[in-house]
Design brief:
Order of helices and strands: HEEEHHHHHHHHHHHHHH
Mean pLDDT: 82
Helix content: 55-70%
Shape: globular
Strand content: 5-15%
Distance between the termini: 12 Å
Radius of gyration: 22 Å
Number of helices: 15
């Protein structure tokens, strides 16, 4: 917005928070201030790319600002590219793949896949009910806990926690925490604090939902033993990362032509984190992976003149400390305060390491634009 304003000869200042945009316009005749109320939306990489193309055309003088504004309205009205059944299917496959990342075996993978499918159906059901959206993290966590406990009772002992975090991995606000830490680190204190508070509330809702479902499972089935994890062989990592990368194309609503880039950055992110963990430990290793992902995203943006978020969002999703935050809230709900606080501190260390890697990537490969 600042760049377009300068291109049109206006002196403008903008202040953006997750729920609103303040703008100050000085056109020479006086200063005018306005406010626009907005609602935080989901990531939609296709629409972001199309809006970025419109901005480029306006900046180059190929279209007038009025034509550009009309084209943006057309982009906002675009229907969903991927059908509902494919979205549901992607939720299931991402959850099943995530169970391998958390050390689960074949039973955890199958259970997590089924639970992920249910979470996908829940997302579709809530899509046209905005008033119920606030209850979604609580309801999703509650249903996941009920399904995990029921599966443990019906089909034999499972690593319930692995199934839980795998089925909820898309909803855990680890990416929100990372963005909040980035905003705080760059001096955007109000936006960063608001986003961090949003993530904290989501964590608490998920934790309460899991605690409620677990308590009801205990009343229904009694105390059930959990099996010691028998993880899948390491070779399955490649398959799981490939499947997760393909599903990210659907879940982030990316263009089909970006499939190869998103799958590639998923491999770079996952194996970069593993290499970094072997080199510097699990916490600091995330910084090396974030540096690699951020540099690749910025190179992509500079070479193709497209948003870096096409690579950055799916790449960071495999790095964000959401699972650690989930473990922290679960421990606090179980009144294990000391271990819970230690886990929460570890989450902050991972988040700081991740943000540091992103900052270093911006120095190593300066981005051309903020997207």
């Amino acid at each position: 917005m600042t760049q377009i304003s300068a291109r049109l000869g206006y002196v403008c200042e903008f202040f953006v928070i997750p729920t609103g945009i303040f703008g100050s316009l000085n056109n020479g005749a006086g200063k005018e201030t306005f406010f626009i109320r907005v609602q935080p939306g989901e990531a939609d990489l296709e629409k972001q790319c199309r809006v970025d193309e419109i901005v480029n055309r306006v900046m180059d003088g190929q279209v007038t600002p009025q034509e550009g504004a009309s084209q943006v309205q057309d982009v906002a009205k675009l229907p969903a590219r991927y059908p509902a059944w494919l979205v549901v299917f992607s939720f299931g496959l991402v959850s099943g793949s995530a169970s391998r990342f958390f050390g689960g075996g074949i039973r955890e993978a199958l259970t997590s896949t089924v639970m992920g499918l249910v979470m996908g159906l829940l997302v579709i059901a809530f899509a046209n009910r905005p008033k119920l959206t606030r209850l979604f993290p609580l309801l999703a966590a509650f249903l996941s806990a009920i399904m995990a406990g029921g599966s443990n009772y019906l089909f034999g002992s499972l690593a319930v926690n692995v199934c839980l975090i795998s089925s909820l991995i898309v909803f855990v606000p680890g990416l929100t925490i990372t963005i909040a830490m980035t905003e705080l680190g760059t001096g955007h204190l109000v936006s960063g604090t608001a986003r961090f508070s949003q993530a904290l509330i989501t964590f608490l809702l998920i934790g309460f939902g899991v605690a409620l479902g677990t308590h009801l499972n205990g009343l229904a089935f009694g105390a059930l033993p959990q099996e010691v994890l028998q993880p899948l062989p390491p070779g399955y990592d490649i398959v799981c990362v490939l499947v997760a990368g393909m599903c990210f194309v659907v879940l982030f609503k990316a263009l089909p032509k970006d499939f190869i880039w998103i799958v590639a950055i998923s491999f770079i992110s996952y194996f970069g984190a593993r290499f970094g963990a072997m080199l510097m430990g699990p916490e600091l290793g995330v910084s090396l992976a974030a540096l690699t992902v951020g540099s690749c995203a910025n190179l992509f943006a500079r070479y193709f003149n497209r948003p870096a978020s096409i690579l950055l969002l799916p790449g960071l999703l495999l790095l964000v400390p959401g699972s650690i935050g989930f473990q922290s809230i679960s421990l606090l709900m179980e009144q294990d305060v000391i271990v819970g606080m230690q886990t929460a501190f570890r989450m902050f260390i991972v988040a700081v390491a991740l943000v540091s890697g992103l900052f270093l990537s911006a120095v190593l490969v300066p981005p051309r634009k903020a997207l």
